[in-house]
Amino acid sequence: MSGKIPREFIDDVLARTDIVEVIGARISLSKGGRDFKGCCPFHNEKTPSFTVSQTKQFYHCFGCGANGSAIGFLMDFDQLSFREAIEDLAESAGLELPDTGPAREDDGLMPALLDTLADANRFFKEQLRDRDISQDAVNYLKERGLSGEIAALFELGYAPPGWDSLSKAAGDNKKTIDLMAKAGLTARKVRTLLILLGPILGVGAIVAAIGINESSKGYLKAQLQDLGTDLIVANAQDSLGGFGQTPRIPEDATERVSRLPDVTSVTGTYQISNVVTLPFDAAEDYYKAFPVPIIATGLNLPETMEVPMVSGRFINKFDYEQSARVAVIGRDLADEYGYLRGEQRTISLNGIDYGVVGVLDWVLLEPSMDSAVFIAFSTAEKDWEIGNQDPTRLYVRAPTNTQLVAEEIPTVVSLGGPDGARTSVPTDLLNAESQVDESLNTLTQLMGGLALIVGGVGIANVMSISVIQRSSEIGIRRALGHTRTTIAMQFLFEALVVGVLGGVFGALAGAGVVWFTSWSRDYVMILSLSSLVGWSLVSVAVAVASGLYPSMKAARLEPLETLRLG
Fold first, then answer.
1. Rounded CA gap, 290 and 281, in Å?
2. Which of 144, 234, 331, 433 is most exposed, with minimal Cβ within 10 Å?
């Protein structure tokens, strides 16, 4: 297929064509003053309202509003494409189409686009003739002194309220709708969706990350509050152990700590080792063996930790005095082995069977205890040869003056020296976590900001492509008198809408993720309104900034450059 027909050749063809001869060869015309009249071929009528001007080389129907040049008449009457109409008139005028070189990629598209533009032209002119729809527009034209003849001569039309009137007129014709989009007459829904994805994903990711982090932190704080912030953890330091030995707190130090003012409960523990265990010896073929910590402890661990029993009981005084082979297991270990409430079971530790007398509930501050086996110090001394009943760690409950008690414990443990033990309280954990959260929030926001910037680059790229695709639309607007500022503001407004919609939908999507996560994990949903609004505004700012270059590019386009046929 040849390339585009030069504008100069089209003008030459029209100059050599008599529109009266072209139309008179197809319908009956009669002389009426300076013009010729006949019945309009484009609608049914009995009284002639179709006028052909030989001086203006223009036809117009006062009945249906059809009008145009000889080219337009052939396209409408003979159902020809733009190129075919030019070829027909050129042959009649004895002219040969010039060699326009190889076809460009859009040559096959141009005739279809011209036909679509002609259809759109007819649609808008028809809307102007419908007085029920366009009465305000007609009154406006009359106020400006523009008659119906002038409106017909310059092919004025009316666009009804709404952004999709032309699309609705096309009905279900997907091909026509796509051509309208390519001509810049209707919106490209896919393009718009792709532009929106950038800010939606960026804002959604930030809001979701911050919301999930805050909700999980709130959950942990609530759990710690339930547990109480008056629990002190004291670990033996190296100064209490010999060379190559595990540092341990003397048993009598436990008694001294328990006598401190404000201390209500003390429990010592000693983790023996991680031992591969089975619920019982015969279960090897049915259960996967895995290592669990064995913890030697005193009698009041549940009281000190304020952790209830799920079932059964804890180690009692009789078990302690008799060095009984009884054990209490953590809740995770019970779930793994399928222990039932009240069920009589044993657990095998290195070939030694212990009767399971109870299941301890989850211990928030010591997650390792959830899969541990608890035995009495006396039993551990007998079965595991731990040497003595000195613990490596103390758990101290001090409801009042907690910090003061924590500072006194190292001195009491080492009988005057400050280096015997290292203490901590849950508030220390919360403070450390807050610092971590600050860093995590900063990192999250930086990553979210980067995502928004990437989305902004995508917006700029897509809108730049849109400027190229809509060059004909821009040319038409400039030819109709729109200023460069108006064109630029149009694209900036589109970017603004993208930013607002992207921010709103992104915030809603992020909030939805936070809600689902909180619901599935039993968190209390924590979501800051300032975060939602703030990041939505950031999305707007990024989108507008991304639209600056495309808008300036659109404003610099010249009408003749965009409307040129050749």
1. 14
2. 144
